[in-house]
Design brief:
Elements (H helix, E strand, L loop, with lengths): L18 E4 L15 H10 L14 E5 L12 E5 H8 L3 E10 L9 E8 L17 E5 L3 H15 L1 H5 L12 E4 L3 H15 L1
Length: about 200
């Protein structure tokens, strides 16, 4: 991938009080939902045996990362337990799992439910000094049902870090969820409603 010095991060915007538009977040971890599901976290940890599939770490430094923002999907299939530092770097688009490198799992037990992938690290800014570089050559094994989320996260990573890849048609454009629009009733619309109600009553 050719370097692109200007970092193009997704935009996040809120409109006026009359109209609230929810757009794609700046980073994967920024969310619109008010409550995360604790059962999702517990299920994710259980599926991965309370272990980071990239670093192998267990214990207090293990966090449940969402592949795409949890505001969009908070199901276990959209999660991977990761060591805290590589989780933070993932949210900052320092690396991503490459779905095009999917291979059968090397697990001896229960391998049918897993796929193995390589990861891609960004060469923008100071990413060379991040801890993810220590694991850049490793393979990460992820639950098979997570593959669609990996594909979407990969496209968003390319959009942010290497937009020229999309411009040249080497990667499909991201399929960001449609903006959710909520309109509040204006005084004029309320007046029309009252008028029509009176006419119907008479």
């Amino acid at each position: 991938m050719s370097p692109q010095r200007k970092r193009m991060a997704p935009e996040d915007s809120d409109d006026t009080d009359d109209m609230v538009v929810v757009s794609r977040p700046v980073t994967r971890s920024q969310a619109r939902s008010k409550v995360r599901s604790e059962s999702t976290k517990q299920r994710s940890r259980h599926l991965y045996n309370d272990k980071c599939p990239l670093t192998g770490v267990k214990g207090p430094s293990l966090e449940v990362a969402h592949i795409i923002p949890w505001s969009e999907n908070d199901e276990p299939a959209n999660t991977i337990p990761l060591r805290a530092d590589v989780h933070k770097e993932y949210d900052q688009y320092a690396w991503v799992i490459d779905p095009t490198t999917k291979q059968p799992s090397t697990r001896k037990i229960g391998s049918g439910g897993w796929n193995a992938y390589k990861i891609i690290t960004s060469d923008k800014g100071d990413c060379d000094s991040l801890s993810i570089q220590e694991h850049a050559e490793k393979v990460i094994e992820v639950r098979r049902e997570s593959h669609p989320f990996l594909e979407e996260a990969y496209k968003r990573f390319i959009q942010s870090e290497y937009p020229e890849e999309i411009e040249e048609g080497r990667v499909d454009k991201p399929t960001y969820p449609k903006a959710k629009t909520t309109r509040k009733a204006t005084s004029s619309s309320l007046a029309k409603t009252k008028t029509s109600t009176k006419k119907n009553a008479s």
